[in-house]
Amino acid sequence: MKNNKTTSLPVLSEMAFVPPQTISHYHYHYHYHYHYHKKFNLLTDNAHIKIHSIKIKKLPLLMTKKILLPLFAAISTALFGSVTQAATPVDFSNQDWEVACDNTRTCRLAGYQAENNSDLPVSVLLVRRAGANATVDGKVKLGGAKESSAKALMQLGSRHRISLFINDRDYGETKPYSVSGGHAELTSAQVSALLEALTKSSKVELVIRNTRWQLSDKGASAVMLKADEAQGRVGTSSAFIRTGSSSKSSSNVLSPQAALSLRMVMPNPKAISVSKKKFAMRSSQLSELMKSTMKDVESDCPNLTDSSSWRVSRLNNKQLLAQHDCWTGAYNAGTGVWVLNDTKPYQPTLVTTSATDYSNGKLTSVQKGRGIGDCLSKTDWVWTGRAFEKSHESTTGMCRLIEAGGAWQLPTYVTEVKVSR
């Protein structure tokens, strides 16, 4: 996490805001344990309060004349029905394999070594986009004690590459190792052979010299079938798992969907309140106000009423961002983030209770899956001028010791963010 400085106004216990002071702060989110510090300064009379406003964006109602209702109903069924289907993410795992399909219908399948084989960790990622003619791309990552020496060899040149063996048959070498990506890409022939092998019991190995990393086949077929279902391929010729005669037409395969476009607006910390008044509220009052945004405060934000300071910053000339430590676990922590009006009615809206970082209109939550940090989950929100909207959600896959921070990016929600200043 980066150290971010923001002009802010902490709410002090039973006191109105006073002269500037510095407060150190750190957060975490989901499965990973990251330390970072932020400095927040108290706001003065013309302070600029930075806040994440999380208002739910309402869709406009369809206005129509009675005579056109049947037509619009038909159009709505066709259009909105497909949108709803496309927006449904898939996150499924079975034994040593998992699949994540995002809102564009791109599916990413990741397989690992058997869970009891931690000495030689390995992972393969298979990516297939939506559409009848979509191809499958494959990548491999090696981990464990011999991973560093293997990488050193691969960086020497093409003489040292990973070879794929299936049931003791050599399927050749992968493409050159990518230093920046930390992986090697599989050839199209290797991908085809691997996909065929994973539909049944097979021994799959990635080999460099005398070291053999074995990829588990357990759970692969179940995960492949789930990907077929998500992309509408079951019963078609492009399915991973062929059922019967595969008689369904390729027209049944779902098309890719465009990612939602978000316009990210940079907050204006120097904006002057429309009311021309300075925001001031006691910490106990602010805590009480935020309780209304949660069903179970003791579970969602048990530290809401403790002695830690509130941090309030301005988003624009009407809205503020308020932050308060919510919870701390063994290797994760979370900060509560709210957007509220700077005058009555305050109408606070909760964005998250698991934030770990905020910078220039982007809010992030990163959490460890376990203490050693070999798997993470991440969620991002961006400020759109009136609310914080989710822009990204992903995990890095199973906790299988592939590398620090996780093996892959497996998103279930993606957007196209354009920055507006």
In short:
The chain has helices at residues 69-86, 147-154, 188-197, 220-230, 283-291, 297-300, and strands at residues 5-7, 39-41, 90-94, 97-101, 107-112, 122-128, 136-142, 163-166, 169-173, 177-178, 183-185, 204-208, 211-215, 260-265, 311-314, 319-328, 333-341, 349-355, 357-359, 362-368, 376-383, 388-395, 410-420. It is α+β, with helices and mostly antiparallel strands.
What does this structure look like?
This protein has 421 residues and is an alpha+beta fold. It has 6 helices and 23 strands. The model is unreliable at 1-86 (pLDDT under 50).
Please describe the topology of this protein.
Blueprint lengths: L4 E3 L31 E3 L27 H18 L3 E5 L2 E5 L5 E6 L9 E7 L7 E7 L4 H8 L8 E4 L2 E5 L3 E2 L4 E3 L2 H10 L6 E5 L2 E5 L4 H11 L29 E6 L17 H9 L5 H4 L10 E4 L4 E10 L4 E9 L7 E7 L1 E3 L2 E7 L7 E8 L4 E8 L14 E11 L1
Parallel strand pairs: 1-2, 14-23
Antiparallel strand pairs: 3-4, 4-5, 5-6, 6-7, 7-11, 8-9, 8-12, 10-11, 12-13, 15-16, 16-17, 17-18, 19-20, 20-21, 21-22, 22-23
| Sheet with the most strands: spatial strand order | 3-4-5-6-7-11-10
Number of strands: 23
| Quaternary assembly | single chain
In terms of per-residue confidence, which ranges show pLDDT below 50 for 5 or more consecutive residues?
Answer: 1-86
Q: Biggest sheet, in brief?
A: 7 strands, antiparallel
What would you report as the Rg, rounded to the nearest angstrom? 25 Å
Strand content: 25-35%
Relative helix content: 10-25%
Helix and strand content put the structural class at alpha+beta
Give the averaged pLDDT, no decimals: 82
